[in-house]
Amino acid sequence: MDQIRINKFFTEHGICSRREADRLIEGGRVTINNVVAKLGDQVCAQDVIARDGEVIPWGQERLYIKYNKPEGVTTTSEAHVPRNIIREIGHQERIFPIGRLDKDSSGLILLTNDGNIVNAILRTEFGHEREYEVTLDRPYDQAVLDRLAAGVVILGSKTKPCRVERLTPKRLRMVLTEGRNRQIRRMCQAVGYRVVALHRVRIMHITLAGLPSGAWKPLSPQEQQALLKAVGRNQ
After folding, report:
1. Model confidence over 173-184: pLDDT tens digits?
2. Beta-strand pair 106-112/64-69
3. Measured between alpha carbons, how far apart are the two ends of the chain, in Å?
4. Is 127:139 a contact under the CB 8 Å cutoff?
5. Sign of CA dihedral 69, 75, 76, 80
6. How many CB atoms lie within 10 A of CB 71?
7. Cross-strand partners of 200
8. Could you list the active site residues?
9. Which residues pair with 199 in a beta bridge?
10. Among 170, 186, 168, which Cα is nearest to 136's?
């Protein structure tokens, strides 16, 4: 009979982070078979786990969704924030975004109820690609592309080398393997330009193909299988 730690149960069911789960447990808000849980407790599928008296089912289906976020939508699960991404999508299940996309940026973002997969996608050392189309405030030259591709100093350290491609005199394509806070805007600012539009078109192998702005849909079986394989997970 497979057992997991109680805090891992919460992340696998997309309820909260392990740290938050530990706080719930320390606060006496979690029970296992009607007994108040302790940090480090192990649970299995035969156990009844509840938070604040509400039973959390074991058999929750894992959900993986892609969303074409419009500008103006905030990537947060906080219910009080106007136009938060959870309210905009309106999914009946509890889901949360993987990573962030600035309020003034648009494009692809993934959402899930699978807490285990988040770090595997976001952690820099795994080198998962993210592709963006960037519009600058004025025309640029090849020297700007070369500087961006080689890496520039933002937030006190140099960015990793990335792929940069000219699209038009003011537009370019950037493919990053890291995701620092407002990274592309800061990188462009470091070489003397201002970003006027930022649109993410790809995360790893997943694209926006056929998904209009403001729309969402589950990953296809092929997309989901490739995603789980890329992060070392079985179906």
Report:
1. 999 999 899 999
2. antiparallel
3. 19
4. no
5. negative
6. 15
7. 107, 132
8. 102
9. 106, 133
10. 170
